[in-house]
Records
---
Amino acid sequence: MYRTAPRGKRPRWWTELPLIAVVYGLYSAGRLLVRGDEQSAVDHGLSILDLEKTFRINFEHPLNRLFTGHASLGIPADFAYASLHYLLTPAILVWLFRRRPDDYRRMRTWLMISTLIGLIGFTLLPTCPPRLLDPSYGFVDTMHQYSEYGWWGGDASAPRGLGGLTNQYAAMPSLHVGWALWCGAVLWRRGRSAWAKAAGVAYPLAITLVVMGTANHYFLDAAAGAAVMCAGYLLARPALRLAERIRGLAGRTMAPGTAGTPANVSAGCETSASTALARTTSAGFPAGAGRPGAPERLREAEASDQIPRQPARGEAGESRTDDAAAAAR
């Protein structure tokens, strides 16, 4: 059976859906607002390519030649790039929401924080993808090459005519790889079958090959996407603790204060403050008399209220002896 979260802590779809929509809206709008200067994006792309060539990790070159030379590889890769990013990630989120509510909040927070970190990367480092470099650098845009097979045009994965609604210089980091890594981690940790765990390993690796073979990302873009997900994972738990603390403070602020003296409880019975009697000591004084804040001393009982003291047994005997001696005299 699937584990379920306590009823009071289960996520609610009417709060989760707007939250996810807001974060994704910020991500999409941010990509458009921070398009950056085209020349600086090209310079950043060339710097990344030069760095990869220096360390001989420019794996995107041979992969792109393989995908452009074999349609049986290039066309499925284009479909995967254009669709799985937007289909599989939400599907796994919904599955977590329904079947693993105890894990959902942490995994959702991990994904959202990583996405926002990626947006910071797009802002600070606009990067031209390999497919938009000059053809002399040896890259071919496979999505443009095989565009007649799909709904996309020459503007990345955007549908034809909607290329202006995307930022084509948001290559660093690759959130295609980052989100695929998140999906793989969920499948590996929460999958119930060996097939699910195998898919958790294969999916992020396949997406990494796809983004390089279609000339949409450099290898370092993919590595940066993985690093972003690692940072989001480390920040997820502190973010959840901070959110819980804020909710707790807000709840205490909004809750009405309880005024008045607390009720006295004795032997499991509770009495109101106005009817409770002050606790006294064996001497007849209130408990705590003489200490600051202690109640005033009770008034002393009047003489008429007191019960006459009865003589002790010894005292009574002595009194009878004295009376007998007086009578004899």
---
Amino acid sequence: MADASPALPVAGLADLTAESRMIATPWSRMVRGIGLGQYPIDYDPVAAERIRHTFDLLAAKVPPVNSYTLFARRLADLILNVAAPDVGFSRTDVGSAVGAIVDAVRSEANPYYRVTAGCLLMDAFAKLGLDRKLLVNEWMDFPAEILAVTDQIRPDRIEDENSGRHGDYERLSACTAVFLAFGQLGLADRLVTGERDHVREALDLLERIPAPFFRGRGGSMLLSVISLLGYDGHVFDGPRDYLKEVLDHLDRADELNLPPAFPQPMTEDFGKIYPLLTMLNAIATAGRAEYLTYRKDRLAEAKELLGRIDPVERTHMGLYYLVALHNLGRLAEQVPDLDAFVEDVLGPWDHADPGANFFRNGIAYPYMIETAMVTGRADLITGRGLDRLVDSYPDLDRTDLDRANRPYPFSYTLNMLGEIGEADRLYTPSPRYGGRSAVAWVVGHLSEGGREEGTRLYMLDHALISYALRLRGRDRGETELFKKFRFPLAS
């Protein structure tokens, strides 16, 4: 297929909703499970059947004891039944389905993922317009139950190449998801009333994340959500200024010597620009322009770092950079020729190999697609490039690491191709996959019981839930929480 004519859901940055501007990147959605279901469309029975078929394939590989995938399947089924105009899903039907979903959430042994699942359910309720009394009633207070689980998340439980550098990063990320879910349900006041000030407690977790990379990246989303909820006084107006403290910690990166380790080699500057760009978005959300020049010119620093990282790394960071500048109202000033900038970021589209590795190259293509999408540059997304991406997954058999992590880039691709109306490429039988579809082949090549992939499977669950939520209908766009929010510094 030589050409592509993707149906982009937006014509440019000016069309993005507040949710898409605050939670703009695949990392937040696929890894952390927040901000799913962006760019809603009308219900599509073909897409609904694809989602259910993918969960059927997963069920054949992943045992029922995997509570998270069971939860994801049940939640996606609820979403699709509510969204389908011809199903007539009643309030009683919703209540029954919610009971089974809550059971699956409670069965998840890992408290971090139990919180993530619970927040996904609450977020779906808000986006589907369901009655929150099904979650908060005389028999159950599900939001309070999930908030309490955050206390069970212990530091440094993430077992990866950065073991020992996370501290309370996981608990902080869980608090971010819970705060956002509470805001979506109109329960944000619970966080700051009563015996505990949960917002203040979460902010205090920041100093218990040792590595600047993780403190900046995780802290930026927490700070953004707190501003969204209207509690930014907790950040700036108390005895401590938490945003300044994070920036100070980023500035000490060389002194602290706790650089992030990545599964594939990345430049030292990549580890510095990533948290900086996310913090720029937090500054934009808070509307505090003075922090752009706190101790140094933060925009000049970002531009310099962007020029030093290599072209493949820029495909990751270009999206973060553009959205942050847009939210700050500084895009035209910092990037006077947006088209030329986007064309440069997408330069690797014609020659980078997405099958070379799962992380560095594997997620570069979805980032390039998203960058082209949010800037309205459909012309830069070619059919040849999409074919190269869809056909790349057998190449990840070359190493054990790439094979076990294959769901990581695949979830990004499923999410992105769905957003631009090209998901059929993943569900069409292909000679590259021996007459099977890419989806069937990738799921069919999971390890026995999904043991080697571990929590990487949850990213595929998130992609499928997000796909399902997008089918809720164009009339169910932004929730009230995001609809009333404006970025203070943007024109």
---
Amino acid sequence: MRDYLTDRYSTRREHDGSWTIFDLFTGLTAEYQGRPTILMDDDGSKSLCIVMNALDKQRRRQTSK
């Protein structure tokens, strides 16, 4: 199986109504450029999550060769 095809990140809505991007592999809050991906709005979290998954898949694809 090609592990680099699997999404690593997803979003979740928090109790305060904000959004967080988290690591599906660990369950922990994800970081982007050294910052936690917390207190985000819905659209921003979804857009950044797409970018983070694409970057992660690219990294994993390169290391699997």
